[in-house]
Amino acid sequence: MAATLKPNAPEIRKAAQEFINYLNKAVTPFHATQEVKERLIQAGFKELPESGHWDIQPTSKYFVTKNRSAILAFAVGGSYKPGNGFSIVVGHTDSPCLRVKPISHQKSEKFLQVGVSTYGGGIWRTWFDRDLSVAGLVIVKNGEKLQHKLIDVKKPVLFIPNLAIHLETDRTTFKPNTEIELRPILETFAAAGINAPVKEDPKGEYDPRSIVSNHHTQFLGLIAKEAGCQPEDIVDLDLYLYDTNKPAIVGLEDEFISGARLDNQVGTYTAISGLLESLSAPAFQSDPQIRIAACYDNEEVGSDSAMGASSAFTEFVLRRLSAGGSTTAFEEAIGKSYLISADQAHAAHPNYPAKHEENHRPTFHGGVCVKTNVNQRYATTATTHAILKQIAFEAGVPLQDMIVRNDSPCGSTVGPILSTKLGLQTIDVGCPQLAMHSIRYVLFLKFSFNQFIYSEFADTSSIFQATTLYSTFYERLATVLANIQ
């Protein structure tokens, strides 16, 4: 039973370490999607082309991707017929970060710099004094063909140093100008061997595919080397900055997970892990449902994209899965379906206890948090909550309640978006964590009874608890729904 396992139990440690292994590779939405894709293929899933014909068979497993940054996997139950329901768990692959601008060459005080855009609601002060690298997607030309290349430089190549405290006029408040003061340093003029950076002009006839004049020669050369091509072959790129300080299991008793992108790689990883784990049980052979795990991009900026939860992509997939039944098979299926939106939740912070509602204070190792907001920032209802309580009871996984204070702003998730667009009964859940949207979380120490008590990031128990909950959800949903009066 997950509720009785201690934070340092072998099952907890194993699940947390496997997540860390994944997180170390999932440095961008593209890399996260690729890692999920490889796990699915190893488990016998078949990739389907979005633009091709689908021939869906019971007990078979499939996945489809969008923009290489979102993925939707599904396993067809042995008793599935068009018009039957969908058991869905969703997460998202993106996190707040800095992304390279289309024209990135900048310079100041004999430093070459790279222009970046702020993506999402990041805690931008945490990006200072970090060893940053760059990764993402590069599109190159090969004759008349265009090829996609996934790259990860891995080594620290970009830096945003803080201003010395002696030069600060306000030493108590730090709010950087994100356009001017958040420009990473790439190289000095001296190291580049130049007196001043020169914007290169395209050689020969104008080619709209060329981007050599948009970036520093040194930067584009670095990217081209990783992509295995020449700089002039690069047609476009989508690059993300990230902290090279690797995620890890930490703490006096190895009970914490320290790392960036926990929001929301925890949701993505546990949704996929729960789906894969559920398929080993005999119940899959007779399941009337299709089990789905979806991981979207662009949640951090509102989900309004082709690969985001606001697009018609999910509806298109579900309609294709309902094909072959009656003319109302899709609509019939919606009424037999249930969706879990798995996105991180706020644990009660030991240094800011007044920021949390007095009766809703999620703790580490306390279980998966159910997020409720009567203003519909979360999609949880009494019915969907009751259904998950029954599944959690059968799974042996504890649940916690989370709401925000009336005098505090509230975030949101893809849950209300999908619930609204598809008419799906939905619940919002998440694993507890601290310092959400920080590039690298701060370690807080509290001295008590001559021992150090660590309180940071996320807890190791969450990975095992969430995976177990979602696996049981896939296995038991059809039965639980059938028993509702």
Automatic annotation (TrEMBL):
Keywords assigned: Aminopeptidase, Hydrolase, Metal-binding, Metalloprotease, Protease, Zinc
Enzyme class of the recorded protein, top EC level: hydrolase
Names of required cofactors: Zn(2+)
GO molecular function: aminopeptidase activity; metallopeptidase activity; zinc ion binding
GO biological process: proteolysis
Cellular component, GO, one term: cytoplasm
Coiled-coil ranges from the UniProt annotation: none
Pfam families the record matches: Peptidase_M18
Keyword Protease in record: yes
Record-linked CDD domains: M18_DAP
Entry EC no(s): 3.4.11.21
InterPro entries per the UniProt record, alphabetical: Peptidase_M18, Peptidase_M18_dom2
Catalysed transformations (reactions): Release of an N-terminal aspartate or glutamate from a peptide, with a preference for aspartate
PANTHER family: ASPARTYL AMINOPEPTIDASE (PTHR28570)
Family: Belongs to the peptidase M18 family.
NCBIfam families xref list: PRK02813.1
The protein's assembly and partners: Tetrahedron-shaped homododecamer built from six homodimers.
Name of the protein this chain belongs to: Aspartyl aminopeptidase
Organism: Caenorhabditis remanei (Caenorhabditis vulgaris)
